[in-house]
């Protein structure tokens, strides 16, 4: 790690760095409304264009970029594609920022899941494990491109379990932030929203109130000793 500038800050400053959250670009399932947790689907052509465009916006906001060792991406390829196309390909994989495991809802729309469960299912209120075990299993989805991707429906994660993972992610990058470095996390809508709730030290269900669009970024920081949201959905 060098003592060069990170973003618009001097990395030798004692001021803490900022935590920048970037959601991946569009996928086929983000458009169809199918729950996309651990299924490893790629960006669409539009998603690739979005990733390049958000890279330009980030370079305007952080003209000095992010120092080596300060960029992280989810293990899923839609996040890694976004990082690469945005111009931040020198990332490390951070398993803790993989998307929420939707389990029995994976690959299915909310309407499909509600019909199968026999009630108006809500991921935040009910979680994947409220759904019938009959929805578990493995299958293959054929994307419009012709690519086939495996889909796994297991029991899934609770929102509290996902929140615990994001606290681990925050702990992993906190030394960099405390050293004055800005840190970039490239991941997914739900996990980044839940991570934000944990940054703010509030109930993870608060995250449902935070809208985060494809290929948009947010900035978390510290202000007068408090963890705060500095910018959202940029």
Description:
The structure is a single chain. Mean pLDDT is 94; it is low at 1-12. This protein starts with 18 loop residues before the first strand and ends with a strand. β2, α3 (77-86) and β3 (92-93) form a beta-alpha-beta unit. It is globular, with a radius of gyration of 18 Å. It is built from seven helices and eight strands, in the order βααβαβααββαβαββ. The protein has a six-stranded mixed beta sheet. Strands 4-5 form a two-stranded antiparallel sheet. 32% of the residues lie in helices and 17% in strands. It is of the alpha/beta class. α2 crosses α3. It has helices at 28-32, 45-61, 77-86, 110-117, 123-126, 159-178, 189-199; strands at 19-23, 71-73, 92-93, 137-142, 148-153, 183-187, 217-223, 226-231.
Structure summarized in a few sentences:
With 234 residues, the chain is α/β, with parallel strands linked by helices. The chain is built from seven helices and eight strands; from the N terminus they run E-H-H-E-H-E-H-H-E-E-H-E-H-E-E. The strands form two sheets. It has a six-stranded mixed β-sheet. Strands 4-5 form a two-stranded antiparallel ribbon.
Q: Which overall shape is indicated by the principal axes computed on the Cα atoms?
A: globular
Helix-and-strand structural type: alpha/beta
Helix content: 25-40%
Q: Tell me the major beta sheet.
A: 6 strands, mixed
How are the strands of the biggest sheet laid out side by side?
3-2-6-1-7-8
**Mean pLDDT, nearest integer?**
94
């Amino acid at each position: 790690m060098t003592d060069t500038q990170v973003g618009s800050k001097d990395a030798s400053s004692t001021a803490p760095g900022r935590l920048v959250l970037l959601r991946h670009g569009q996928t086929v399932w983000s458009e169809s409304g199918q729950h996309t947790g651990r299924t490893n689907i790629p960006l669409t052509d539009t998603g690739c264009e979005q990733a390049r465009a958000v890279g330009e916006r980030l370079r305007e906001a952080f003209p000095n970029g992010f120092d080596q060792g300060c960029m992280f991406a989810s293990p899923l390829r839609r996040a890694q594609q976004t990082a690469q196309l945005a111009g931040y390909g020198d990332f490390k994989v951070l398993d803790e920022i993989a998307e929420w495991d939707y389990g029995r809802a994976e690959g299915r729309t909310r309407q499909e899941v509600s019909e199968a469960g026999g009630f108006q299912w809500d991921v935040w209120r009910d979680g994947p494990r409220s759904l019938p075990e009959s929805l578990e299993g493995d299958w293959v989805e054929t994307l419009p491109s012709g690519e086939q991707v495996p889909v796994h429906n297991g029991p899934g994660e609770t929102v509290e379990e996902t929140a615990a993972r994001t606290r681990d992610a925050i702990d992993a990058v906190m030394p960099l932030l405390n050293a004055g470095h800005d840190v970039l996390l490239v991941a997914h809508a739900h996990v980044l929203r839940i991570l934000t709730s944990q940054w703010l030290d509030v109930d993870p269900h608060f995250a449902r109130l935070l809208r985060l669009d494809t290929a948009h970024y947010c900035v978390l920081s510290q202000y007068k000793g408090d963890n705060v949201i500095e910018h959202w959905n940029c």
